[in-house]
Each structure stands twice: as C-alpha cells, then as structure tokens.
Amino acid sequence: MKIRETLVGLTDSSYEALKKTGGLSDDVRVRHIIGLDTQRNGVAVAELLSDNLQLTFCERNAKAAKADLIRIATEIREALEPQEMSESDALEVNQLSLVDAPIAARKIRGAIYISCAGRGGPHFGAPSAELQLLKKALGDVPLTGFFAGGEIAHQNLYGYTGVLTVFTN
Question: How many CA within 13 A on the CB side of residue 127?
Fold first, then answer.
C-alpha cells in the first residue's frame, strides 16, 4: 500500500519546505502518517501539530539518500583537505599578509557518524553500508558510528537523518 511508504515533512509555514533541487530543506521534520480519517478528509501524523505548519508529503528514496551522503562527506573532505598547492599558488600566498592568507588545510583525524534507525541498515542495502560510503568519501580516517532514534537540533527532534562529526587538527 502506497500510504505506508509515504511520510509527512513538517515545517513552519514561513520557511520553504523544498530546496530548488527538489529535496527537503534542512528545517523539515519528517514524521510517519499513522492514520487517515476519510470522513473528515484528515491525516493523522506522529506528532502533535500546531497552527501555521506546512505539510509536505514525501517518501524515502534510498538512491537520493546515498547520493546526498556521498556528496556531503566529499564536500567536507575537500573543504578541510584541499589539494596540494602549486608552487605559483604557494608563492602568491607567501606574498599576502597574514590577514589575507587562506585558512591552512586541516587534516581529518577521525569521524563519528550517527544514523537514525529509520534511515540506516537495509535502507542503504547492507549492514554498515553508510559507514562504508563515508569511509570511501572521507578517505582513510578512523570512523565509527551507531544508530539512534533521531537528532535533536534547535529544540526539534528530527528523524531519518544522519549526523557526521569530523575531528581535525
């Protein structure tokens, strides 16, 4: 039944629920649909709802989740450990004042990944699949992780999320 695969994204009506790429924005809280009221054309959601909430129907997409995980881990690695500078770039940096110099590259020393239990495991195809994807994207760094019931941020509980913490020098 399609309703079992459908979730609801909740966000304050003053925020955009969707990114231009079609994905959900960072402020969206994903919840289960727990019932339908056909007499009142209502939807029961696994959260106490308040006024001024925007509901966006969505579904889990393993392919999109995998691509997003690889993208964000790769962006983090590239931001922290930029490629080696050429001699001309190094000379240019040496000629700048300390105020104008770019931030020195930081080496990733390790990482912890916490995945929502509703997101991980079979959703990515195999046990430890998320960690394997992260290890490939981050490179050869110590990496550990575990499953949790969600993420608490900005006084909200988020589900179907993954939290990556990277330690640098």
Answer: 0
